């Protein structure tokens, strides 16, 4: 395989991984409105906190989010001699990294609180504890550098 074929392979792989990494976030946004506006607090808590509704977001989404940083990072390194392409791919890498940092800053603290919940009375701040960070991640331009 010549270098152009190798770069084409990595470019396509990077684009596919980047697109797939946005899938769980987009699905989460689409399903969140009914869950947060129509479900009773007890149904929300039972489904999301105690019955692992979002387990596959961690199993599938987390490795994809890391790969969405690693793949363009490697592609940027491979394109270091092609300056215009290098800067675009490096920008995508940095934006995906910023999105992951935003997830750790906004969503992980809410998830950490949810992980401590036990069956019993519903907390007064139920709507505030998990609802704010996740839509903010998707609405952030940093979370979708290669889409739209």
Q: Could you describe the 3D structure shown?
A:
- This protein has 148 residues and is mainly α.
- The chain is built from six helices and no strands.
- α3 runs antiparallel to α4 (83-114).
- The protein is elongated, with a radius of gyration of 18 Å.
- The two termini are 32 Å apart.
- 20% of the residues are buried.
Number of helices: 6
Name the quaternary structure: single chain
Structural class: mainly alpha
The outline comes out as elongated
**How far apart lie the N and C ends?**
32 Å
- Rg over CA atoms, rounded to whole Å, is 18 Å
Average predicted confidence as pLDDT: 81
Portion of residues within helices:
over 70%
Main beta sheet strand tally, sense and closure: none
Instruction: State the order of secondary-structure elements, H for helix, E for strand.
Output: HHHHHH
Strand content: under 5%
Beta-strand segment tally: 0
Low-confidence stretches: 128-148
Summarize the structure.
This protein has 148 residues and is mainly alpha-helical.
Keywords:
148 residues; mainly alpha; 77% helix
Task: Give the topology, please.
Layout: H1 3-37, H2 41-50, H3 55-78, H4 83-114, H5 126-131, H6 133-139
Helix pairs in contact: 1-3, 1-6, 3-4, 4-6
